[in-house]
Amino acid sequence: xxxxxIAAYISGSGSNxxxxxxxxxxxxxxxxxxxxxxxxxxxxxxxxSSLGISTAVVSRKSLSRNEFLDLQFTLxxxxxxxxxxxxxxxxxxxxxxxxxxxxxxxxxxxxxLPKFGGKGMHGINVHRAVIEAxxxxxxxxxxxxxxxxxxxxxxxxxxxxxxxxxxPESLQKRVLDIEHKIYTEAIKILExxxx
Length: 195
Ligand code: GAR
Fold this sequence. Notes:
α2 (46-50) links the parallel β2 and β3 (54-57). α1 packs parallel to α6 and α5 (124-132) crosses α6 (168-194). Helix content is 37%, strand content 19%. It is of the alpha/beta class. Residues 10, 12-16, 44, 87-88, 108-110, 121-123, 126, 176, 179 line the site of glycinamide ribonucleotide.
């Protein structure tokens, strides 16, 4: 069974990341999160940092493009990272990182891709769009990341029925509950694939 050294990228509350870390600590997956990078002072940095996991805020704002890239490469190398997971990261990863880690970057998205993906489609916007379109089903997707937003090969998807009185908020909560399980499952699939 392959065990990955994971780096997670986040922008917000980091609840998906927290579940992956908890499942790693419980031994559900053998991979471990060694590094968390955020594009802002995200609340989701608190939990990994309380466990002694390395965290860093790497923002394009205060750095030149080269400094921004160098800092990430240095951190990824320092921790021997061989799997990147995007967990509510709302920026686009630099192409240089996407190329170096091709086939080794996952993203979780709160809708059934290829529907309801693309720029601006994140968080509650996604669930609002699903309901406005009158979709019968929704659910989270874990996919590989390539150079185009929400475009890479699908790895795992779970479908739920949109109920009659569904609101964007109720759908978001139901989908997030499933996200908390399937991100770990997706990592496990990769571990088993690469034994
Ligand atoms: C999750 O619902 C994730 O699917 C979504 O952001 C949320 C992050 O929650 N990602 C996207 O919409 C990406 N397009 P979390 O910070 O609590 O894990």
